[in-house]
């Protein structure tokens, strides 16, 4: 192992030790003493922590690996419209959902998204909770797997060691601090990790521009490839082919923004804030950060392409290769002395941060659904506080093991895995959440129909319809979201109106 690699490794080890200590601290402070503390931090989180935790848990390894890799390989069109859709979705999620969900969930004493739906519609049999919990497990397992895959790719690429060993080590660290500290630990660590991610983004894009020969050279290199910098054209680095990025593709890509309304690990952050009025601060901070972060991430891909054209990096021709562009740039950075090796270590810690901040949140949300909604709610298994906590922590470990198994293939694409899981949550929980918060006439039968219809349509469109190509080649989130919304409306109107006390509770919350 070279001296730069040793310094990078030392930086990363110190970072991992630090965040593990944070988990231990919150465990000893009592943040995992009961389920309300464990899942929602006792609804005492500050606005800055909520903002940065929500956005850090949102972005995942997709921000530092998937998005730059896509920009490197295809030019700016697809990543640009994806980022626009996500930025708009982020803002409207904060604006429309955050305060209403915080207020209504507190009124109903709901600590998970499935329990919110059940209590909102007075589903005493907890069928909604069961359906929602199953959806969470189905789509969070591959989402968690994408995070583990990103960590494995990071270390195997950098140190030329076995992918599977490094993936399992990273997964173990995430499990430890999630099990120990609950949401208070996870949210605080996410705040720290958002700062590390920011340092990583700024450092690597600045270095890359210098290596490519300056900003003018970056632009010049990109312009040599027809359509590379055109938001209405696509480019394939591997084949050199240029294509049109038309209206259908743009609408399909913008649909990413719809996913925000249904992300359990983001929505639960809204429920955890100490004062709903402070969500205005969170909205501004979170929205600004996400726009800047995604813009810089796309820029990293373009700059990385320029560095390859300058002969400083090998040309990356597949999605799994292009997603390592930030790792390759960090490795190049480490060759310039001790300070730059440490800076490269911080950059790579930023990749870990982006991955961990999502994986920990997803594990926590999945654990809450399994223990609170399935075991306690639907199956009516009586558990005291200690038993509930053991069930929650056991679920974290179980889901992480399954996620690690799915991440075993080192050639899978982080972007594609996240894309599918994102669509799954957006199409199931998104329409249900909007109707629960804004439509008084919606009922439990409609919500059940929407959850099932959205989940089924994701698989149908992804594996049966989209492969047909042409007009059918639309991101599965958009058609599945519309089908789920239509199912809620039709079934709600075709079945009896909600009970009087359900309507009364909605009217009191809606004042």
List keywords for this structure.
2 strands; mainly alpha; 19 helices; Sodium/glucose cotransporter; 511 residues; two-stranded antiparallel ribbon
Quick overview of this protein structure:
With 511 residues, the protein is mainly alpha-helical.
The name of the CATH architecture is Up-down Bundle
Computed Rg:
22 Å
How many beta-strand runs?
2
Q: Name the shape in a single word.
A: globular
* N-C termini distance: 64 Å
Extract low-pLDDT stretches.
none
**Class by SSE composition:** mainly alpha
Q: Specify the CATH homologous superfamily.
A: Sodium/glucose cotransporter
What is the typical, i.e. mean, pLDDT?
A: 84
Number of domains: 1
Spell the H/E element sequence: HHHHHHHHEEHHHHHHHHHHH
Report helical residue fraction. Answer: over 70%
Please describe what this structure looks like.
- With 511 residues, this protein is mainly α.
- The protein has one domain (3-407, 414-509): Sodium/glucose cotransporter.
- The chain is 77% helix and 1% strand.
- It has 19 helices and 2 strands.
- It has helices at residues 3-29, 35-40, 47-74, 77-108, 113-120, 127-159, 163-212, 215-223, 247-254, 264-272, 279-309, 319-322, 325-333, 338-378, 385-406, 414-438, 444-465, 477-494, 500-509; strands at residues 233-235, 242-244.
- Strands 1-2 form a two-stranded antiparallel ribbon.
- Strand 1 (233-235) and strand 2 (242-244) form a beta hairpin.
- The longest helix has 50 residues, at 163-212.
- The termini are far apart.
């Amino acid at each position: 192992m070279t001296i730069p690699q040793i310094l990078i490794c030392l930086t990363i080890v110190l970072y991992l030790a630090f965040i593990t200590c944070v988990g231990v601290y919150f465990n000893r402070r009592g943040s995992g003493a009961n389920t309300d503390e464990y899942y929602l931090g006792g609804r005492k989180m500050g606005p800055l922590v909520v903002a940065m935790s929500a956005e850090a848990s949102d972005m995942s390894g997709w921000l530092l690996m998937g998005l730059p890799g896509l920009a490197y390989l295809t030019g700016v069109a697809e990543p640009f419209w994806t980022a626009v859709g996500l930025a708009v979705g982020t803002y409207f999620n904060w604006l429309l959902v955050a305060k209403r969900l915080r207020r209504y969930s507190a009124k109903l004493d709901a600590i998970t998204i499935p329990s919110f739906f059940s209590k909102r519609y007075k589903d005493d049999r907890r069928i909604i909770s069961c359906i929602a919990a199953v959806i969470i497990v189905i789509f969070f397992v591959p989402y968690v797997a994408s995070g583990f895959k990103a960590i494995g790719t990071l270390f195997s690429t950098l140190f030329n060691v076995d992918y599977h060993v490094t993936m399992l080590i990273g997964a173990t660290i995430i499990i430890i601090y999630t099990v120990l500290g609950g949401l208070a630990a996870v949210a605080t660590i996410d705040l720290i990790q958002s700062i590390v991610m920011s340092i990583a983004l700024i450092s690597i894009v600045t270095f890359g521009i210098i290596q490519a020969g300056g900003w003018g050279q970056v632009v010049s290199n990109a312009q040599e490839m027809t359509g590379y910098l055109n938001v209405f054209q696509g480019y394939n680095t591997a084949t050199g082919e240029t294509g049109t990025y038309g209206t259908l593709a743009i609408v399909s890509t913008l649909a990413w923004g719809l996913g925000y309304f249904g992300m359990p690990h983001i929505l639960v952050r809204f429920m955890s804030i100490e004062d709903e009025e402070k969500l205005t601060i969170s909205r501004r901070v979170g929205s600004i950060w996400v726009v800047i972060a995604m813009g810089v991430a796309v820029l990293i891909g373009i700059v990385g392409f320029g560095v390859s054209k300058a002969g400083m990096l090998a040309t990356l021709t597949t999605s799994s290769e292009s997603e390592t562009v930030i790792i390759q740039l960090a490795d190049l950075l480490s060759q310039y002395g001790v300070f730059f090796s440490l800076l490269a270590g911080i950059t790579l810690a930023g990749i870990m941060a982006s991955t961990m901040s999502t994986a920990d949140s997803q594990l926590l949300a999945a654990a809450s659904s399994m223990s609170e909604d399935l075991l306690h709610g639907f199956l009516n298994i009586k558990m005291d506080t200690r038993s509930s906590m053991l069930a929650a922590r056991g679920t974290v470990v179980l889901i992480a093991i399954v996620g690690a198994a799915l991440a075993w293939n080192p050639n899978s694409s982080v972007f594609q895995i996240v894309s599918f899981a994102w669509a799954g949550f957006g199409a199931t929980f998104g329409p249900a959440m909007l109707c629960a918060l804004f439509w008084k006439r919606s009922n439990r039968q409609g919500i059940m129909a929407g959850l099932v219809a959205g989940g089924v349509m994701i698989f149908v469109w992804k594996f049966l319809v989209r492969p047909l190509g042409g007009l059918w080649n639309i991101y599965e989130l958009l058609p599945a979201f519309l089908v789920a919304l239509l199912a809620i409306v039709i079934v709600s109107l075709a079945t009896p109106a909600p009970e009087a006390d359900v309507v009364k509770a909605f009217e009191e919350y809606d004042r």
